[in-house]
Amino acid sequence: MPRTPIVGGNWKCNLDKAGVTALVTALNGIDCTGCEVVVAPVALHIPTVVGSIKADITVSAQNCNFKGNGAFTGECSADQIVDIGCKWVILGHSERRQYFKEDNDILKTKLEYALSKGLKVIYCIGESLDERNAGKTIEVLKSQVEPIKDLLKPESVVIAYEPIWAIGTGVTATPEQAQETHKDLRAYIKEACGDAVADAVRIQYGGSANAKNAPELSACPDIDGFLVGGASLKPEFGDIVKAIAAAKK
Which of the residues 127, 162, 182, 236 is marked catalytic? Predict the structure, then answer.
């Protein structure tokens, strides 16, 4: 059974109220036919987006706490995220791993908790440039996926492969590099989780995806979509959605 492509827009820590309103207006005009589309605003802007974005686009939080409500200053619980109208959460982004020191153990706890509350999850993994140059890419990815392999349910978890060296740098993995990594990752998931999971789980590419490189990347058989950063704030986001939808018809 073919995998439905999925494109996520990670707005990161960007936009003011006027910018959010303008971006939602633009997004309400894109064609989402043949592609699942998810956007992740800053937590403060989630109510505005949930209340104004069209039904074809679902809303994600960019992070959640590792457990429920309580004395956790600065956090949002999965319970609150669901209550406010979100369907998704992003976990494990390299910026969370790097700047906030989130490791595989805490991310597994977050994933278990988010899933238990009914959220779907975009779970990010990726290697540094030094790790790629040392030939350790798949070794690093395995180390990030292995702790959560029992939670890898295709209907509720999407893997986002984000080579750290390509995030926000303008440098993108070539289609050949991206496909090779996605293929190797899917082979590992087959080994760890079985054929059914490996065949069904969606793997996004997330390293400086944009309208220019999306058609070539979309043609790769093991790339099922994109987690888009900077380009998700621009009109070209619709072109990225269009490219993957066309390639996966």
Answer: 162
Q: Which of 93, 127, 182, 236 is catalytic?
A: 93
3-state class of 187 per DSSP? helix
pLDDT averaged over consecutive 10-residue blocks of the chain (249 residues)? 94 98 98 98 98 98 97 97 98 96 98 98 95 95 98 98 85 90 98 98 93 96 97 97 97
Look up 139 and say whether it is catalytic: no
Distance CA 38, CA 61 (A): 10
Residue 155: active-site member = no
Instruction: Using the CB atoms, write b or e for 36-73: b if 16+ within 10 Å.
Output: bbbbbbbbebbeebeeebeeebbbbbbbbbbeeeeeee
How many CB atoms are closer than 10 A to CB 246? 16
Q: How many CB atoms lie within 10 A of CB 29?
A: 9
